[in-house]
UniProtKB/TrEMBL annotation:
<dbReference type="InterPro" id="IPR003599">
    <property type="entry name" value="Ig_sub"/>
</dbReference>
<keyword id="KW-0812">Transmembrane</keyword>
<dbReference type="InterPro" id="IPR037448">
    <property type="entry name" value="Zig-8"/>
</dbReference>
<dbReference type="Pfam" id="PF13927">
    <property type="entry name" value="Ig_3"/>
</dbReference>
<feature type="domain" description="Ig-like">
    <location>
        <begin position="26"/>
        <end position="110"/>
    </location>
</feature>
<dbReference type="InterPro" id="IPR007110">
    <property type="entry name" value="Ig-like_dom"/>
</dbReference>
<dbReference type="GO" id="GO:0032589">
    <property type="term" value="C:neuron projection membrane"/>
</dbReference>
<dbReference type="GO" id="GO:0050808">
    <property type="term" value="P:synapse organization"/>
</dbReference>
<keyword id="KW-0472">Membrane</keyword>
<dbReference type="InterPro" id="IPR013783">
    <property type="entry name" value="Ig-like_fold"/>
</dbReference>
<dbReference type="InterPro" id="IPR036179">
    <property type="entry name" value="Ig-like_dom_sf"/>
</dbReference>
<keyword id="KW-1133">Transmembrane helix</keyword>
<protein>
    <recommendedName>
        <fullName>Ig-like domain-containing protein</fullName>
    </recommendedName>
</protein>
<feature type="transmembrane region" description="Helical">
    <location>
        <begin position="135"/>
        <end position="153"/>
    </location>
</feature>
Length: 155
């Protein structure tokens, strides 16, 4: 299935009567990328949208391995939300996390656990986040234009 087809599948589903209706889907707050500090608590909140009933189960995966019952992992679920908590995150907790409810299209998030040295080094943060690179590039261009205009006005 192509990426755009998966995207459409997330929101629409043909019903038995041929009409288009909403398909239940999961959404993880902070997706697609979340950066957390090593040693902190990793808390992922998965909201189940457009569901008419509480899911029978919500499975959580880390890099395609189910982790619901792993040591140090706490999972809570209510009618429309599942929360995954990991105490004392370290770099081994980096990777892709999936929230897979029984009655909904799953959701994904990429978690990046950063050591203190990466946190203190702005270049590491920019490397870890492509949107950070875009922002830094944009700000650099603005600064260069401002300097050029200032020098042109003073000449």
């Amino acid at each position: 299935m192509r990426a755009h087809e998966k995207s459409l599948r997330k929101f629409y589903d043909l019903t038995g009567k041929g009409s288009i209706g909403w398909k239940a889907s999961a959404e993880i707050i902070g997706a697609p990328d979340l950066h957390v500090r090593a040693g902190s608590t990793l808390r992922l909140v998965c909201t189940i949208l457009h569901s008419t009933e509480t899911p029978l189960y919500v499975f959580w995966y880390h890099d395609q391995r189910m982790i619901n019952h792993d040591a140090g992992v706490k999972v809570t679920i209510d009618r429309s939300t599942s929360v995954l908590q990991l105490q004392d995150a370290d770099t081994t907790h980096s990777g892709n996390y999936t929230c897979d409810p029984a009655n909904a299209v799953p959701a994904y998030i990429n978690v990046h656990v950063l050591n203190a040295t990466e946190e203190e080094n702005p270049a590491a943060m920019l490397h870890a986040s492509s949107s950070g690179v875009s922002t830094a590039l944009f700000m650099t261009i603005i600064l260069i234009v401002a300097i050029h205009v200032t020098l042109s006005l003073n000449s």
